[in-house]
Amino acid sequence: MENIKQIQDALLNWWDADHADLPWRQSKDPYAIWVSEIMLQQTQIATVIPYFERWLARFPTVQALAAAPLDDVLKQWEGLGYYSRARNLHAAAQAVVRDWNGRLPQTAADLMTLKGIGRYTAGAIASIAFNEPAPVLDGNVIRVLSRLTDLPDDVTQTSTKNDLWQLAEQLVPNGRPGDFNQALMELGQQICLPAKPMCLLCPLSAHCLARQRGTQLERPVRPPRQRTPHYDVVAGIIWAQDAMIGDPNSKFLIAQRPFDGLLGGLWEFPGGKQEVGETLPQALVREIEEELAIQIEVGAFVTKIKHAYTHFRITLHAFHARHLSGSPQHLGVADHAWVTLADLLNYAFAVTDQKIIAALQDTAV
Question: What are residue 168's phi and psi, to 5 degrees?
């Protein structure tokens, strides 16, 4: 691009005039900047702010995070979603303490050796915390650059992404790279919006080819979305043999999900997907036997919960159940526990299971 200096100046002037005052921008602590960048992955800023503040109150340093049990880390992350981010953050903190003398690496290349830090996150941390002129490329930046250059190519293709990385690298200045990268991201968040770009307010409108050609809404180019699959899933509140169902002082079974899968390490009311030809109770009986090697009797329906993940949707059907026989074995789970309703505060659950807990609390006798 021939107008790189003008783009840099225009964007930094816009940033200086009125950028968002966010908690992580008030800190120069590389650890705090790292935590914010991990939390902001695929999550809205307004959602992140209270989590970020609570996180730093609970784990104020990388040493504090590294020393904490994973269960405590997941509990602090509870409700924020994409839980592999929390597991990776914990593992990376332990690596920083063990391998880097408790200090976060200062280059994008070294940051990428840590678990959970890819090229975008490494560039963000290195530029903001350590003033390295490293590029960033997230969804917002892809949109800005695609419109700026009126890019006609599919941005989901590897070759196109490589071209965009090269452009981002050309644009990031040697001076104030962190401010420039944050300005580029904020431009995509606040001005260069997907459906209604506010071109009249954009500091780069004079340089934007899509604006000049009227193709803003056609950029970036992506393939048509495929239909999202849906699954019916069952979960059981499995009461002990001598328990009174619904009694808040009686015990029921919860299980910990395997650490290497979806929602790994979180606790849940055990169950799984309904298969073709099964009723929901039949699916629950089969899943519990496959995961825990125990036999149950399915009782009353509790609640139905609809939830969308990144690549699929579910309808979760929760039932009361009674433990009939067998000792729980860890065939498809990492751990199990017999708990009362009050005990659940000590365990980290995904949002779907939190809704089951709310239903149990509402109907407790």
Answer: -60, -35
Q: Enumerate the domain spans of the chain.
A: 4-218, 230-363
Cβ of 332: how many Cβ atoms within 10 Å?
A: 17
Q: What is the CATH number of domain 230-363?
A: 3.90.79.10
Task: Tell me the whole-structure pTM to 2 decimals.
Answer: 0.89
- SS3 category, 363: helix
- Domain 4-218 CATH superfamily: Hypothetical protein; domain 2 (1.10.340.30)
Q: How far apart are CA 160 and CA 142, in angstroms?
A: 10
Burial of 307 (0-12, 13-18, 19+ CB in 10 A): middle
Q: In the 8-state DSSP scheme, what is residue 314?
A: E
Q: What confidence tens digit (pLDDT) does each residue in 314-324 have?
A: 999 999 999 99
Active site residues: 37
Alpha helices in the chain (DSSP H): 4-17, 30-39, 45-58, 62-67, 70-77, 84-99, 108-111, 119-130, 139-148, 158-171, 177-190, 209-213, 280-292, 351-363
Written as six digits, the tokens of 148 are 């700026």
Tell me if residue 117 falls in helix, strand or coil.
coil
Instruction: Identify which of 84, 31, 81 has the alpha carbon closest to the alpha carbon of residue 51.
Output: 81
C-alpha–C-alpha distance, residues 151 and 246, integer Å:
59
Q: Minimal CA–CA distance to 205: which of 191, 226, 225?
A: 191
The tens digit of pLDDT for each residue in 222-249 reads 999 889 999 999 999 999 999 999 899 9
